[in-house]
Amino acid sequence: xxxxxxxxxxxxxxxxxxxxxxxxxxxxxxxxxxxxxxxxxxxxxxxxxxxxxxxxxxxxxxxxxxxxxxxxxxxxxxxxxxxxxxxxxxxxxxxxxxxxxxxxxxxxxxxxxxxxxxxxxxxxxxxxxxxxxxxxxxxxxxxxxxxxxxxxxxxxxxxxxxxxxxxxxxxxxxxxxxxxxxxxxxxxxxxxxxxxxxxxxxxxxxxxxxxxxxxxxxxxxxxxxxxxxxxxxxxxxxxxxxxxxxxxxxxxxxxxxxxxxxxxxxxxxxxxxxxxxxxxxxxxxxxxxxxxxxxxxxxxxxxxxxxxxxxxxxxxxxxxxxxxxxxxxxxxxxxxxxxxxxxxxxxxxxxxxxxxxxxxxxxxxxxxxxxxxxxxxxxxxxxxxxxxxxxxxxxxxxxxxxxxxxxxxxxx
Length: 412
Description:
By secondary structure, the chain is mainly alpha-helical. The chain is 65% helix and 3% strand. The protein has a three-stranded mixed beta sheet.
């Protein structure tokens, strides 16, 4: 899509991002698309319907990225967040994913589900949203009057020693073939996406579930669309030169003869994720809604909440929901904290890393996804055994035994 001015190009970029998020929020509410729910269904009742919806979204997103990079539409080596960075922060991926998995279980949903529930009138999710936003913002932005962030104070001094510097980018294709990563990426994408699709679609029950199919389709296509609009909107200058939004901002002074830049937000290639954008939304609001901070992430948050709200009105499902008890409040409070820290450390949530990041076949994204699922599943197991009046450590051991990760402890 070509535009004659940067203002019109950027406006189209924001509106397209918002419109897709609006649809995604409405569909997620209507279909109950929920990644935490997918893990819960699998762990507690053995149902794989929502898990297959999640996997369908992943497969579609992988296919979309595979086609886009093969066609030369975009390069995914410099995205935001940097999914394919050559520095593999594996410990942050694992720790952040594990924390996020615990947090989303305690907080009744991942980042996307938190926004969807908030749009449907759930006050508990509004509180979780606020906690995530506050932590995510100060994990990457300094406290007022200082140069210190939560990340620099709590993690930087010790966690970076675990990073591994790779000779190539960390995606599967580049790791398989340093000499010809383009071909390896093509075949890796086709093979992985096809295998996942076969697993998903072989279930007759899943194919008959309209909501699960719709949810997976819309979320997967939304991630592809996010990648497309952040790479396929151009400003065409009077002399015929084409600039992406990022390259135009980088050349702002040269192209406009005006100092400064109109956008402070990162404009690298990106698609849908929710933890960092919650922090961006807080920064945007606290700045007095400065136009320079209006970004992909900010309009994503607004679109998801509004889309869910509109569907809840159409379906007459909007209702105010408060905490059932003090322990319910504590669980959601702790869940929000863990999701805020974990989502930033792991570079994303169940959609930001679990679908958007995995669509690039980045090793760190895969590690984060596995760690999220493990953290969530183990938390559910522990909660179950605590209800059975088991001690915490014994509940953990029983949970790990159920997951075939250690021998079952002897009866107390």
